[in-house]
Amino acid sequence: MQIETILLPNIQRIEYWQEQWFTLFKEQTNTDLAASYQWLASDFINLKTGNNRRCYIVHNDGVFKGAIVCETEWYKLGKKLPIPIVNTGSHFVNDFAIDNIDGTHALDALIKAIQNDFPHSAWIHFERLTLNCCQHLQALSARTRYSLLSQDTDLSSIFDVSSGDFSAFTQNMSSKSKANLRNYERLLVKKVGPVELEIISPQPEDNIDIQFNHFLDIENSGWKGQKGTSITQLTDSKNFHYSLCKAAAKQGQLRWYKLYAGDQLVTMNMAIQRAGDLWVVKTAYNDNLREFSPGIIGITKLLNSAIVDKEICTVRMITNYSWLDRWHPKKEMYHGARIFNKNLLGKVFYAFLKFMQSK
Question: pTM to 2 decimals?
């Protein structure tokens, strides 16, 4: 296995690997969106560019086997004691790309490269890993002498829409929730106009700017715009999401779900589809229509359309919003993990944190 280390602003080198990275993500349907070139490379190029960020590519004589993004940080233990660590992944999920066939060898090469470059760090930190990546780390630790500590950290919501029957999908919902959904839509139709869902699937040659700007406008109209946290007000976030959408469109994976009432755009969902998985990346709604609970109506229509679409088996929300619980989604765990360095600092904190975790 060979390692290539990419430093910003040399994005040409990471673009060199994109086609092989695209292919790996398409073929490995058990990996999460956060392991894709669309997500991880876009994050590396556009976010936290002022920090000491690196992208490590592992390959076997030019055949792409995996990638990991990381940066040095100071971790404050007990909010007081600063400890040098290496933090991994993106701002949402800390996954890495890995070829499942050569997973242990490829991951071992990536971990060694990071530890060699940052010999004084205490550990490599993974805050939110999906199950596939966590299992790769556990397998690596079991087969090598790496010291690993892991714990559950967060949840995401997963909807099984493979039944093809929306009535069956909603059978576990409470009568009150069903009645509320019907009432929200009835009032929206009465006061604004008939409800219609438009699904846009850009082709690789299409310009995504019009739909992307529509999304920015509707998101900025709500509370995020008022608080200054909308995508359009954060340059790095805007660049990341544009790059993500552009790369996904190039692969024919980008989806826009636009819900109209009459001629008014009510909600818009940014989504990426790979085979039977549909990831809802971002949701936005018209804040002027908030009395009708537009976000809830928009997700309901999206789920209904996914059930009708025989190609989609699961709808995946990156986060676990409490208002999604009315549909009783499956909760999938994110896992936190630390791979400790073999220096004195790593050994001391591995023993200390292992003891604290056992209490």
Answer: 0.91
